[in-house]
Specification:
Radius of gyration: 24 Å
Order of helices and strands: EEEHEHEHEEEHEHEHHH
Shape: elongated
Number of strands: 10
CATH superfamily of the largest domain: ATPase, nucleotide binding domain
Strand content: 15-25%
CATH topology of the largest domain: Nucleotidyltransferase, domain 5
Distance between the termini: 73 Å
């Protein structure tokens, strides 16, 4: 792409909301201008966009692509950047794409190959959004996804990580764990961290890193009329409670939460004997009108 690229990025999934414009000129020099606010409104985002365009002496029509952070995070915040991105895309007739906010935080903290980055952000309700990455240039964006984003209980975060450290050894002889996100500063989590784990000061995703990751997708696909990506917010917690009927069946807690189970239990196959026939018969009753096991 020899012409100049102007890529606008929006990130509003956390309490720190930001807008950035990334420019790549004809000789691949990159310039990024970013503005940050704590306000949560379309008006404040539009004001920041106007200010950045004025700083760079650009018109909105010069924007080639718009990318937004899809979360996980604030329900209202992620919808804000998503809807604004879609509106500008339709108005300016430019492509739109989205980037996971946790991936943007990992991008901000990576420093060397094979580094293991664990991103944990406060999801409120005593729960945590959690993901893990290995820095590896062989993969898209330079990251091997070790754990896609899940929702875990606050008290399960540190036990989960301690249990997973052994699994990380196959990617790195001595895992250099880097902790990113605001969840690591929660008191009952911070007090239980291993001293060898490096806790960073990167607490929130930024539009700057959304732009950097978005640039990679755009430059590979700019010849297409439309870049097909997941253009909606990422909802990890899209059901926050069980219905009364579900609760009567014994369901409790959060429907989306992933219960922590330590990887110590090893299940080995055993030869079935006559002692097992009753249990087999009960299983068959769940699926068959006329179980046949005891008819033999």
């Amino acid at each position: 792409m020899k012409e100049k690229l102007n890529l606008l990025a929006l990130e509003t999934s956390s309490s720190q909301r930001s807008v950035a414009l990334l420019q790549v000129d004809e000789v691949n020099n990159i310039t990024i201008v970013e503005d940050v606010t704590s306000e949560n409104s379309t008006q404040s985002l539009l004001h920041m966009i106007d200010n950045i365009l004025k700083k760079l002496n650009l018109d909105k029509k010069a924007i080639n692509c718009i990318v937004f952070g899809q979360g996980p995070g604030s329900f209202t915040g992620t919808r804000l950047s998503c809807s604004l991105a879609h509106g500008m895309s339709l108005t300016l007739k430019i492509p739109i794409l989205s980037i996971e906010s946790h991936l943007a935080m990992a991008e901000a903290s990576k420093s060397k190959i094979d580094q293991i980055i664990v991103v944990a952000s406060d999801a409120k309700m005593n729960e945590i959004y959690l993901s893990a990455y290995q820095v590896n240039p062989k993969y898209q964006f330079g990251f091997n996804i070790l754990q896609s984003t899940i929702l875990v209980a606050c008290n399960d975060l540190v036990p989960w990580l301690r249990n997973k450290v052994n699994a990380f050894y196959k990617f790195q002889k001595q895992p250099n764990l880097v902790l990113v996100g605001n969840a690591w500063s929660i008191e009952n989590i911070n007090s239980n961290l291993n001293s060898s784990w490096l806790k960073t000061s990167i607490y929130y995703p930024s539009a700057k890193n959304i732009a950097i990751l978005g640039k990679e997708i755009f430059l590979k696909n700019h010849h297409k009329k439309q870049i097909l990506k997941d253009l909606m917010p990422l909802y990890i917690r899209n059901k926050v409670a069980f219905t009364i009927a579900e609760q009567k069946l014994g369901n409790t807690g959060n429907p989306k939460i992933v219960p922590f189970v330590e990887d110590k239990l090893k299940l080995l196959p055993q030869i079935m004997t006559e002692k097992d026939l009753n249990e087999v018969y009960l299983l068959e009753q769940e699926d068959q009108i006329n179980p046949w096991t005891k008819k033999i």
